């Protein structure tokens, strides 16, 4: 499966924080909506209509498991580093890859996806993501070229 940008889901294990931010930003704008679990009551790493959340777009299809659902990124990172934690699966690709290496950034991006009001329009999402970029000392330049196609 590919993201709405045409890129495959997943990111190389040695990705920099900037590469993680840029991929997630492109993904969120191209997708244009939250990845909602079937029934529409909560966000998911993989959602209905082949959608993915900010963290989910960093997970390759071969690595994804439904056991990840309902677990925040930080819990998955703890489980990956220290063995199963509170029922969360221990997933080596999280421990050894870009998600584990940039877990606080990925958590911040996941929070934008799950909880922000950025979905209302392009400028609102740019503001939300720019705050994340500034907090993690990343270059937000990519945001200037991204927009919601239908808003």
Shape type: globular
- Name the poorly predicted regions: none
| Major sheet characteristics | 2 strands, antiparallel
What's the helical proportion of residues?
40-55%
The count of strands amounts to 2
Decide which structural class fits the backbone. mainly alpha
Report how far apart the termini are.
Answer: 25 Å
Order of strands across the main sheet = 1-2
In terms of DSSP E residues, the strand content is under 5%
Describe the structure in your own words.
With 151 residues, the protein is mostly helical. The chain has one domain. 40% of the residues lie in helices and 3% in strands. It is built from 6 helices and 2 strands. A two-stranded antiparallel ribbon has the order 1-2. Strand 1 (46-47) and strand 2 (51-52) form a beta hairpin. Helix 1 runs parallel beside helix 5 (103-115). The protein is globular.
Write a brief structural summary.
The protein is mostly helical. The chain is 40% helix and 3% strand.
Question: What are the main properties of this structure?
Answer:
two-stranded antiparallel sheet, 151 residues
Spell out the blueprint of helices and strands:
Layout: H1 17-31, E1 46-47, E2 51-52, H2 73-82, H3 92-96, H4 98-101, H5 103-115, H6 122-135
Antiparallel strand pairs: 1-2
